[in-house]
Amino acid sequence: MKGILGRKLGMTQVFTESGKLIPVTAIYVEKNVVTQVKTEEIDGYNAVQLGTVDKKEKNATKASIGHAKKAGTTPKRFLKELRGHTELNLGDEIYADTFAKGDYVDVTGTSKGKGYSGVIKRHNQQRGPMGHGSQYHRSVGSMGTLRAMRVLKGKKMPGQMGNETVTVQNLVVIDVDMENNVILVKGNVPGPKKSLVFIKKAVKKGEENQNVEDLISYLNNEETANVEETVAEETTEEVEENKESKA
Fold first, then answer.
1. CA-to-CA distance for 123 and 111, rounded, in angstroms?
2. In contact, 52 and 33? CB cutoff 8 Å
3. What share of the chain in percent tops pLDDT 90?
4. Please, are residues 135 and 209 in contact by the beta-carbon 8 Å criterion?
């Protein structure tokens, strides 16, 4: 089982060499460290605990500091358990290259909180007539039957909307940028920008892999260097012209 923790940067779009546009979510993946290994003999199940984003020791508890030292690392701000058999050992480091282009993944995150919402927004119910005489506009409606004399369990009512753990399945990895530690995933991912997300191998797809076309890069290294040189020359000329005009 493969998995890694990351932060959602936001959405953008990329183009393939054939001209196809693909909407993608960029996920920034810092170094993940295996902070604990659980075995069936000791803990009753097999799993590894991953940690990411360093935390200052003055802000960490003694228990978390000791827990991290066993793995030879510093206290981590985010911890997540990955169940299943893995070949990872205590203290191993995981990077964005855990996944490759074309892999199917499931991404878990916390959805955006919408606050206390009514049934029309929360459950997509219809409103009543908006005329003054109807006296029924956006309220809940019938609360139950006469025989039960109570509100039945599962009744759709107003309440907290969003801020829930949501998993989007079978997303495709479009590209892995090791230089910037970014994974591009096709489609949208739950949560606001900079929120924590957990990427793991797709449960339903298994080892399946999709053929993904190469992406277009509009600027190669030589062109980028030429652009930087041109900008630097123009800036120097502007400075010299300003000096001459002042003189």
1. 16
2. yes
3. 72
4. no
